[in-house]
Amino acid sequence: MKVSIIVPVFNTEAYLKKCLDSLVKQTYKNIEIILINDGTMDNSEKIILKYKEKYPGIIRYYKQKNKGQGAARNLGIKKAKGEYITFVDSDDYVDKNMIDKMISMQADIVICDILKEENDKTIYFNNYWNIKNDPSKNYMTSHMGPVARLYKASLFKDNNIYFKEGVIYEDLATVPLLGMYTNNIKYVNEAFYHYVIRRGSSMKQIKYNKVLESIFNVMGYLSENITDNYKDELEYLYIEHLLYSASLRFLKFNRKDKVNIVRNIIRKKYPNYKNNIYYKNKSIKFKVVCTLIYHKIYLPLRLVGGK
After folding, report:
1. Which of 49, 58, 163, 234 is the most exposed place for a label (fewest CB within 10 A)?
2. pTM (two decimals)
3. Which fold has domain 3-196?
4. Residue ranges of the chain with pLDDT lower than 50?
């Protein structure tokens, strides 16, 4: 079975060679590497063309004006010829046996763990949360990044699921929806994916950017598309990504007006959020942050902060 590895590329010349080396050296050989130049302005294209010349049998190259990761991934999905799809960010890299081990699981979605790397610090990240006796529901409440997963291509194409474009939460708006279409989901408790945290990434802003407000649009989109069979899961997505994560990002820039919008949404939609089974399994620290935000007690958050 062929696997399509989709890599959006935008201004990552310092990381791209390491990324591509890890892909062309995969022990599983029936692959195609789809590189999407998303209007990169550095020397990334020169690097891409060198690898395309050296590995013409497996590298396919497409170029578009800068439209963001969501649009780049969508183009990759449409061009993919493989029965399976996986996504790799161009500043990250993977172990050479990642595809081999994940495809051997024979599932519609396979998830592996992640090594988060920042400077000289490496953190092991468990990418799957086993709370209910239902793989699709556990999947929908696990980490919502599209990477470190192997997907049946038909999940996207047959159900017309594509990434939202023009927002920075395109993964959150897309990845959970796939769980509604399969229960054949397996987890490999090994970290094959190396997630490199760099200062210029979209979620490491040092100045306030209005694109952070797209979280409201994305959560509304999820409400419209997630069916009633997943009420607990949708509620948890609101708790994790709106009440907790988005609020902390807004508070980082002292945007209490946006946090008040978050509070009003949660108070209206999920006033009993503390009864959510997934929330009950979170850390004390997580629960304290949520409680402080819900009750508009912001000062102690400077001490509590983060996950």
Report:
1. 49
2. 0.93
3. Spore Coat Polysaccharide Biosynthesis Protein SpsA; Chain A (3.90.550)
4. 306-307
